[in-house]
Amino acid sequence: MPALQRDEAQTRARLIDVHRYDIALDLTHGEDRFGSRTVIHFTAHADGDTFVELKPAELHSVTLDGRRLDPAALDDNRLPLTGLTPGAHELRVDATMRYSRTGEGMHRFTDPADGETYAYTQLFMEDVQRVFAAFDQPDLKAVFALTVTAPTDWTVLGNGIATRRDPGHWTLAPTPLISTYLVAVAAGPWHSVRTEHAGLPFGLHCRRSLAPHLDADADEILDLTRRCFDRYHEIFEEPYPFDSYDQAFVPEFNAGAMENPGLVTFRDKFVFRSAVTDTERQTRGMVISHEMAHMWFGDLVTLRWWDDIWLNESFAEYMGYQVLAEASRGGTPPRTWGTDTWTEFAFARKGWGYDADQRPSTHPVAPAPEDVPDTTSALTNFDGISYAKGASALRQLVAWMGEKDFLAGINDHFARHRFGNATLADFIDSLSRATDRDVHAWAERWLRTTGVDTLTPVVREGEDGNWSVSVEQTGSQDGTRPHRLTIGLYDHDHTSTGRLVPREPLSWDVPDGAAHSATGGRPALLLLNDQDLTYAKVRLDPVSWDTALGALSGLPEPLTRAVVWNAARDMVRDGELAPTAYLDAARAHLPYETDLAVVEGVLAFARTQIADRYLPHTERHTALATLTALSRDILRRTEGPEHGAEAGLRLTAVRAFIDNATTPEGIQDWLDDGSVPGGPRLDPELRWRILGRLATLGAAPLDELRAAIDAELARDPSATGREGAARCHAALPDPAAKQAAWDALFTTDSKAALSNYLFTATATGFWAPEQLDLLRPYAARYFTDVPALAAARGPALAEAAGRYAFPAVLVEEHTLHLGEACLADAHPTPALRRKLVDQLDDLRRALTVRAAAGSA
């Protein structure tokens, strides 16, 4: 499918304006295909030729102004429209389209729990042409009016209020001007919870088998939705621009969520079937807030071309966290998550940005137009830079120019470009109108550049007991990127061993801040970027590092502790701190840690990076034993009814104990008993987690393990259960099981091919660090088989194959050489190439860290 070129989009936008789409979808054609009829009303400004995009199973007829066009003229996904003259035109297209199993276009899913079927659209970037004919680019906004024919027991949802005319026939209210990629339809026998707020209908929707779980959380979700909605109306002068607000939790969704105006779609993993921690509830809340921010950033005002994707994602990411924090505090009663939202951001998101920004594939937050020449290149930019780094830059911008002026600039931007398109230059102009600061210079240094700065304190102590500090800046911009940050100063608390007490912090501008001199003795701990307001790696001076190692859990604020833990994480990745030293710090401090995000973040890095990748395989067992002992300590600390408020910590420790188990001892007893001593009882998620670990360890004869997996699937015949079974079968340490899993992963037969979720489940079960000898031959097979899979199954599966099916556990030079040869000779698709480049860079880093640790 040819990618749309930026210059082609610009040419088409100069030639035509699009006014309205009338679309009729018929979802009653069977399991594989659906009907699609489209009428497009548009105007040409001059004589000329252009094209419309469409990717049909069959193209039945096309007429332009009543003149029949030859369907055979369709060239891949482009239908030429020649001989246009100035004035109004009408294009009619009648086609049959294919359902998707990869979450692209119109995805169809049959729920194994009850046999009910659902269909929904995901039209982002260039997938609208899989559903209806369109001039598919973001700056050709139009009104969309849809009718949908569906089975009579289905409910249809869309961007506008849906009305059932008669059984099986639905009309969706026409939209305001929106871009093609934002059109949405969701159809099926939905379970719905409906209410009203601010004069608008609000709704929650999920498949019927999840109804009890949605009902259990509906009050929480709706309450948070209302709080965020009200908070956005307090800070944005432009009111919510659409006629309703539905949130549909849909199956096998590729992203976390999609900001379709009036109908936000979420992965239905956010309808929790099993116990979750408060940080997981907070993550769901952040996604709700993030997608609501898109109603203004992206939907009301839309980028003109995909080089400005940060105008969507960075803003929604920043506003999502900020508004969630404000809405949670402002409610009655306030919502307590167990962790500050920005602490969760520091662990769950910021490292994603730092990692992406240090790879060869790094790019500016706002790349130059010539660096995003087509939709294919744009799609690879949906990464930790466009989300986490961009959001971090905006948080720094607010700290630098002040929230009042920042919001004034945003509101000016909305007023000037409502229901239209805008660029980075437009946005910077709006900010400049609201402040006397040089926002243009700030944007050049922050948004047009790449890389992460490293900030290092230089502390000098005088013989008279006085001391001074300055800050050295190295890295991306040779000391020119400005940072406004806080330097935290802490002393030992002489009334309580192991605790630190803060002094008055220092406010600092890098690189402009002059050396600060003070009397009274240097602090025990000096911490750059306390409060985490800027985006930079930080280092600690030797005295401060020694203090941190001894008293990290004694720092008073979780966000401060997060900054120290992230500094340690970066030092491990950069070969400056031994991986075992990080494990030692975790073992010493996590048993006393009270913040969920800190515990979850440190445990995740310790397991997935240090134990699985950065330590030699011969040291992995010892690392897992350390993490198991640490988890056991947290379990002991959280036993008993008096620790009910720490249920999230306990659940996190239970999960970590299972994942790090090196023998079946303990976890097999939990599975047999159906409960962890002292709680919790095992729910489906924990049962599958234990069974997956037992399968990986080969904890019983293969026949017994297979029988246990099948019995668990009979107990939990849901879609999640099917994924759990696929993961467990792929994890078995058996040549036949590995071969069967490989065949399922890499088939390109559309009838036999796994759905996106079953592919991911199988891939994550397949690669187990405990089974290196069994897995080693599959490294070469991966690099031979994956290019064909990516070419046959498209970008979504290519991304999944590059992320989950990559042989990351084989941290060996041989794997690196195989991957480099694949990049050089196998011509992987752009989506796969980007994932391979990133994975191989991570592999090089892991090899470097191992070498540094071995020579220390």
Structure write-up:
The structure is a single chain. This protein has 856 residues and is of the alpha+beta class. Helix content is 44%, strand content 20%. It has 27 helices and 29 strands. It has an eight-stranded mixed beta sheet with strand order 5-4-7-2-1-10-13-12. Strands 15-16-17-19-18 form a five-stranded mixed beta sheet. A hairpin with a 6-residue loop joins strand 1 and strand 2 (33-44). Helix 4 (310-330) crosses helix 7, helix 14 (596-614) packs antiparallel against helix 15 (620-637) and helix 15 packs antiparallel against helix 16 (647-660). The longest helix is centred in the last third of the chain and has 26 residues, at 830-855. It is globular, with a radius of gyration of 27 Å. The mean pLDDT is 96.
For the record, give the distance between the C-alpha atoms at the N and C termini, rounded to a whole number: 51 Å
Order of strands, widest sheet: 5-4-7-2-1-10-13-12
Shape: globular
The amount of helix comes to: 40-55%
Structural class call reads alpha+beta
Give average pLDDT, whole number: 96
Fraction of residues in β-strands: 15-25%
Low-confidence stretches: none
Number of strands: 29
Number of helical segments?
Answer: 27
CA radius of gyration is: 27 Å
The biggest sheet, with number of strands, parallel, antiparallel or mixed sense and barrel status, is:
8 strands, mixed
